[in-house]
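Teaching note: in complex prediction, the entire set of molecules is handled at once rather than each chain in isolation. The prompt given to students was simply: 'Predict the structure of this complex.' The entities are:
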Amino acid sequence: MNTAMLSRWLLFGEWRAHLVQVTVALIAIAIGVAMAFSIHLINTAAFNEFSAASKSLSGQSDLQVRGRKTFFDEALYPVLARHDGVAVANPVLEFDVAIPGKQQNRNDHKLKIIGIDMFRAMRISPDLLGLVEEGKTLDRLADDAIFLSPAAMEWLQVEQGDSLQLNAGLQAVTLRVAGGLVRARAGQRIAVMDIGSAQWRFQQLGVLSRIELKLRDGVNHAAFKAKLAEELGEAYWVTEAVDQEKRIANMSRAYRINLNMLALVALFTGTFLVFSTQALSVIRRRQQFALLRVLGFTRQQLLRQIMTEGGILGVSGSLLGLALGYAVALLAIQLLGGDLGTNFFPGVKPGIHFDPWDAGIFFAVGLSVTMLGSIIPALEAARAKPALALRSGSEDTAMAKLSPPWFALICLSVAALFTQLPPVFELPIFGYLAIVLLLIGGIALMPRLTAGFFSIVLAKWQRHRSGAVSTLALARLANAPNQAAIALGGILASFSLMVAMAIMVTSFRISIDNWLGRVLPADLYVRAAASGDLQTDAQKAIAGLPGFDRVDFFRTQQLTLDVNRPEITLFARPVDKADARNTLPLTDDMIASEALPENVMPIWVSEAMVDLYGYRVGEKVTLPIGVKSSEFLVAGVWRDYGRQFGAIQMQLADYQALTGDLGVNTVALWLQPGANLDAVTAGLRQLPFGAALEISRSSDMRALSLEIFDRSFAVTYLLELVAVVIGLLGVAASFSAQTLARVKEFGMLRHIGVMRRQILVMLAAEGGLLTALGMVLGFLLGWSISLILVFIVNPQSFHWTMQLHLPWNWLGMIALIMLIAAALTALLAGRRAVSGEVIRAVREDW
Amino acid sequence: MKQNKWSGASVVIALVLLFLGLVGTGALAESDRLKPVTPGYKLIFPQDYGAHQDFRIEWWYITGWLETEDKKPLGFQVTFFRYATGHNQDNPSQFAAKYLIIAHLALSDPAAGKLMHEEKSLREGFNLAYAKEGNTDVRLDDWTLVREENGRYQVEMQGSDFGLSLALTPAQMAMLQDQNGFSRKGPKPEQASYYYSEPHLSVTGTVFRDNKPVTVSGRAWLDHEWSTAYLDPEADGWDWTGANLDDGSALMAFQIRRKGGGKVWAYAALRDPSGNMRLFEPEQVEFTPVRTWQSPHTEAAYPVAMHIRTGEIEWRLTPLLDDQELDSRQSTGSVYWEGAVTLTKDNQPAGKGYLELTGYVKPLAL
Amino acid sequence: MLELMNVNKAYAEGRKVLTGLSYKLEAGEYVAIMGESGVGKSTLLNLIAGLDTPDSGEIMINGVAISSLDDDAATQLRREQFGFIFQAFHVLPHLTVAQNVALPLLLNGVATERVAQMLRDVGLHDRGHHFPRQLSGGELQRVAIARALVHWPKLVLADEPTGNLDPDTAHEILQLMRTEIKANGATGILVTHSHAAAATADRVLNLTKDGLHPAKPGERV
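The expected output is the structure of the full assembly:
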């Protein structure tokens, strides 16, 4: 007999007979792969697009020179243009302008304006040259012309030839839309003007944002960069294009990696499902395999047979998963945008690109996971003594070998150890590993826990009263724990992940809500339209308005402290001298105000500053504020959920003394008791520059922030949902597999007088009880995971801490839903248990 | 002779106007500040060697024949334009684009079989680009054209794969075109420019090809012209030549072709070594194509070999090489043929010069 | 006690198995049914157990027409009055021996004291707490016999109960079965291929295409 043909017969026979199980396994693999692949695709697409968009702004330069502060003196430009080794020096002035009436969220109301010298930009960033109307090339130099990207035109609802009114500080500027930026990336909202006109119109005379350099052929970039950096001194940063990319990558790295980790966790849940499906399918056929062995199948042949089966499943499931993942990614980008609604990649509309290499990697992951799920039971089946395996009742013993308790305990202990380790490359790698190990260990420990728990219940139960159905259900759970536990694994994994995410998100949300209350204490916040400041006369005018109890002025500024990191934010504001806690949401890590020395300038740093820049309370640090760098004392650490890259608060008086800059960007206003919010808002609007003010109520800002927060976590809810579906699929798969395996049992029970209804009740009870235990254990596991998320993953990746809050109602509701869903799933899967074929099954030997 | 003349270098005006997309539109209106060109102005030197900020456009334009030490001929063209944008007059920014400096550099090398060319543009400012008043002193980054006190011009222009460093010494006095430097450019009186030439500049210096220096010497022709006017709307293109004749004479001739055939204007001047100018009326000047060459780059057919009649004199122009097309559609967008030519009179070698042919390619929509 | 009245049954594809089968079995009788493979022995057992319905004819058990019962009623009937012994034992692996034996009592909601007695009777008095995987085939069939009779069934159906056992064990089991059926006052039907097995019954019937007939005396018994 041709063994290949036999192998084929066995394969097709099995699949024909158990189409449902095979389909479920296929879907499980596909969903696992699809999740991971789609998130990878979306992330990559969004990141590449974001990075391409940023790159298209900086063009093909070899080096970039920028100041530590946002703007620097243009006198550097001719110096660099004439510098030895420089082929082209391209001066750029870049700033954001607030668009009135476009304040849906904080990243979405600004138009980026880039001032360029077309003759220089032509050689470095030709994509930024505006497309002029025929015969109007000079518009590129005109002092009233602005060029808009298609996305910006759409957003602002203007076309070529229209006039566009923008705010520059407190003044209005009317510009002519001279044309488009056809090569802007899809969704990129930018505007380009002549650099001289931009300086003039937006009151930025004499300053630049950066100078991009193209070096002469043969000039060593690294050497030139080092030399130039030395020449320019510490006031300037000289960066290469790769630095720029690194910086961009750094901005969203934590977000991207966290999302990828979540996707991997989904894949892991899928893996478990595949494993259990495969294991169950192999174990169901233990006797069959034993017979084959008896008939002369060698161990290798048997192994190969099972592995072939797994391989075919893995290949088709993974291929299906890739297709599904691709489709999901396309859909998600359409519906949610490239950052899945989180605003990590503002203003880009990425397209999904299918990279065969990446697809290959995810295909390989899906396949190897399936093979892994097959090989362990396959090895067990091949190793089993055929004579023993031929006898029924040995299945559970076989399964016990798949999850030895020491393995579970090792996983749990290593997980505990990993929670104590520091981040790697500023990422909570060990935190995630601990989560995975916790899950594996928890699941591996399941059979023991199930057996122990249900044995006790069974014993107690029988003491009170004895019902056949309850005895049957409990006895099965207690005495065949491994099969039960395999069904539980999926639920356990998904429920614990869900609990963990729910606790984390709730903790985060409540912490943010509290924090918002602390950081937005005033009733109204007033800002000058971006790029403009409120000078002293404007400040006086606002302070002089009636209806206010207290008026605080803020100066905010972006500051580059490390060229490889995104800018930090500097807040100069009046901080309560008696107790800084009255102004700032400080952690316990602080120096009391009375303990501060007289002659130092205190700063309060966000938690990110501690993690990223190593600032410690009580330490003296030097910051480039003012003409020269000055020394400050770190007086405290505050929680900042707004800026993960770091922020510093200082006294406004210190700032003004150091810089002589008396302008402010934000005014916080406290209403007098009884003052009418609308009336004072109207008063502000009636100021001569009132039209150019952005006036926000703190209640609106809070609501907006929470809305953004919720949107950011929409994708995690989605992931949770998928995890639950996978878990329920697992229940369905293992119950239907077990129903098949138990067909003779049901047949016998039907013979000796168990009613159909009773069998269904038994199955539902088994499913329900199992799920209930899964919920309890899942909750414990999920709670442990949430501790890791809240106290390890979040501080390590986003540099903020929060307090733990448990969403009891929500958890209870989810538990109930899952309980019902699992019982129903078990019932549904058990439909066959009451069909006519079970009666025939008792007469079969298989 | 008639004073209705139009200089060959007007080509360049049109070029710039083409480049800036201003042809046919009234960009003058918004800038009352700019002066018109009027007859009767007397050119004053050295002041008029320098820049004239009150006029829309101005250029210094040098073409010439060089010879390497091993007697290989080369043609070169160097042009600096200054252009008033009419924008940003009140803009206090140092970057305010009030004036642009544009420069073209081209080298015709029969060995290479084609024209090498490069161009740059920049706004005036930060001392990186300027055209100074008082004497010829123009800079665009590291490209410079400077006239020294003694009248010698220094040109320094390094492109990415070729360049030149030349000293040009006058051997003759300046040649004021047309009516003592007031040069008509079309049938309307305001279509005019101020225009002088310096023929027979003797050239010494170095040419760089593939970063290798080659010592050269030769003879060149310089035009300096400034104006506020623009092309006649009927104009389709023009043909121009300026030649240093072997006997020390200097010949300049051009015609402006009318759309659909015929000419809008023409002018020629022949100055003998002793300085006597002979000017020709438009109807006395006639250009007749002898042979056309079709550009493989742009598909345009240029009459690269030309027969020119000035009065009773018949000239025959033969190109140093056919492919001397300056195709910069990728940058400024202008396309023209600017080539070194040899002149024969009555089948006898008469001199060397440059021929410029424009308007043979449809203007590109910019 | 059991009466077959002109029972007809065809397979789904139309092939007739049982045609005009009529027979009457008195209470307390223990008969063996023999017949060639495919002649419908298992079908007959299913019909008697109410797990299948005849195409026509009637099966009466203590005067009750079993085909008139719905599934629940038939199940109830089986639960109270039937005992089953299978070739493949069908002992639940996750229940102990005692629990397996107790199943019918639990199903009927009666006290389980008799389990110990039954285990003693089948010779497994010290194995009650064992799981089926710890038992041999013969022992498993003893468990099955105990389970089949623990609830005082009226009718015990045994389908090739010794098909999976060696001849010595088979003999022991057959003897035990007979003893226990008689001891519990049940009526027994033993379906078997084995003449030796059939010989342990009171009477031997042959199932053929033509119906159920007493084995001819000439046949070897």
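Point out the following to students. The helical segments of chain B are 10-20. Residues 1-31 of chain B have pLDDT under 50 and may be disordered.
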